[in-house]
Request: fold
Amino acid sequence: MIIGSQFILNLFVGVVIDNFNKIKEKEMGNFFLTHRQKLWLDIQKLFLSQNLKVKLFPPQNQIRLTCYYIVTNLYFEYFITVSIILNTIVMALRYYTMSGEYALTLTISNYIFFAIFNIEAILKLLAMG
Reply:
């Protein structure tokens, strides 16, 4: 009885899934959508098919132009990435019985990273603002 009921249940689920796949193929997945929803999906597909790129124009102000060239430089991005990794490592170096000098060194290094990240934010705001 248990095997027979499992077989019937499995057969029922298979028929339902097969019919669903047929409907999906027939209507291309839009069977349960209203006309407005289908129109919205068509518009989204149209937008996704376009290859749009954001083009940033350099600012006209000399200070902002200098900041723009700094923050768009590849080495600046590498420097910030390395700073983030080093900051994560420094934050992981704390432990319960550390000495006072060690704790002071970690605190000073955190202040240095804090200054680096704030300078990065200010430069990016000046460059893109």
About this structure: The mean pLDDT is 88. The two ends are 73 Å apart (CA to CA).
